[in-house]
Amino acid sequence: MKKRNKKYRPKPVRGNMFVAGYRIPYPLEAIVQRMEIDGTIEATPDGKAVFDDGEEVYEVVPALNGLIHWLELCVQNSEIKVDLSPLTHLKNQLNYHMPITESVFNACKRLMPTLRRLVSLIPAGLAESNMRTVQISSYMPAET
């Protein structure tokens, strides 16, 4: 059998994030729906907000921090302009064990369709690049 002369080069990721448009904001939407239904968020015994996806339990505040950072990077490189301050307010209220105000809750609820649209329109390569940036920055020491 003849040896292949051509070097392997993976094809670049193409397309948009249509499926991710559903999967990425889903935990946040589930938290908002739970708050709308019974006004609660699952929490650990020491009071940290958590999200249980059925397989694993995740802390909400660090996840929101990463999601907000990733969305900010995506908004910078997108034509869609989105105000992410409701998510920041929600994160801060959860982080400091404050009651979630109705205005923040309603703003987050109104933001969900826009987030889904934004995520579904992001090119896959850009989304992946932004994800790596967020992952790297999560390991960097915090600025003092």
Summarize the structure.
The protein is mainly alpha-helical and 144 residues long. Helix content is 56%, strand content 4%.
From the structure above, extract its key features.
2 strands, two-stranded antiparallel sheet, 6 helices, single chain, 144 residues, elongated, mainly alpha
Query: How far is the N terminus from the C terminus?
Result: 61 Å
From the alpha-carbon coordinates, what is the Rg to the nearest angstrom? 18 Å
What topology, given as strand order, has the largest sheet?
1-2
Q: Helical residue percent?
A: 55-70%
Number of strands: 2
Beta-strand percent range: under 5%
Overall residue-averaged pLDDT value: 86
How many separate helices?
6
- Which overall shape is indicated by the principal axes computed on the Cα atoms? elongated
The low-pLDDT segments are none
**Secondary-structure content class:** mainly alpha
Q: Can you write the helix and strand succession as a string?
A: HHEEHHHH
